[in-house]
Predict the structure.
Amino acid sequence: MNMNIWRWADFLEPIPAQAKLTLGEGDTPLVRSRRIGPAAGLQNLYFKLEHGNATGSYKDRFGFMAVSHMLAQGKTRCLATSSGNTGAALAAYCAAAGIECHIAIVEGAPLDKLQQMMAYGAHIARFKGFGTDAATTRHVFELLQKQGNRPDTALQISAFVYSPAGMSGVQTM
């Protein structure tokens, strides 16, 4: 029996064995609330401690599945958008898979997340107004979608409308 995230493979889209990537994500603990739950009248309130994942957030569940699908499809280049955690997760999983990673960063993304992405070798670009100005955001998305249509490239955005395969990994939570 798999003791990693792939033990839930029956609930995910099929991935060939050679494309199944993991960095130890998943199986994060549930901890009963000692104060907030009882104060709110919820004796069985639990918190899921997702900071135990490889890059420190639940977005690793997106990253493992998105990049596994990229491997299965022979993609060699990842394009993405991020305000922080998605970029860190994709950068880590792409590095593990040997996939080039390019991330368009929203204005105001935290410096520590940018450093984390760069530590994994991601190429990052910050666009003034991206994520805060509708016209700029639309323009950046149009550019990414155009580049994302290349045969060697996958556009990974952590939303079901853009990346349903990657988002299916979040369902393992």
